[in-house]
Amino acid sequence: MPLAGHTPIHGRWSQHHRPTATGTQTGRCTISRPGSGDGTTDDDDVWHPPEAAVVYQGPCRVTPQPADSRYVVSGDQRVTTRGYEVAIEWDAAEVREHDNIHIDTAHDPRLAGVDLRVTDVRMASEQWERVLIAEQDLTDLEAS
């Protein structure tokens, strides 16, 4: 039980631990938000989606979720996904569900180049890093 008028966690506890959290983010990633609008068509009448906006580019830590890949049926197609937790710098610009994460570099060469989709943005009372839940669509990988 803390003393009256005191808390067991210092008011700047998160601020003090942020450099340590950022130091564990040994990968680099780019997070982009799908563009809005109608897109464009070129001279050959080929449609191109609106350009995505980069909302974050910097250090990240990617950790697999403890569950194995999961299967869902979307329309008539079975979709296979694998979940990841992605931590980025605490003061990054707002990241939203459905934003895309591209892993630019990672110590694990199999992880570099992987694309993920944000499914949840976690919040906490103490904040030393921004935690995102994302998934990788494995459907196309299974077919190849």
Describe the structure.
With 144 residues, the protein is mainly beta. Helices cover 11% and strands 44% of the residues. A six-stranded antiparallel β-barrel has the order 1-4-6-9-8-7. Strand 2 and strand 3 form a beta hairpin.
Structural class: mainly beta
Largest sheet: spatial strand order: 1-4-6-9-8-7
The largest β sheet comes out as: 6 strands, antiparallel, barrel
* Distance, first to last CA: 59 Å
Helix and strand succession? HEEEEEEEEEH
Keyphrases for this structure?
mainly beta, six-stranded antiparallel barrel, elongated, 9 strands, single chain, 2 helices, about 140 residues
Please sum up the structure shown.
Helix content is 11%, strand content 44%.
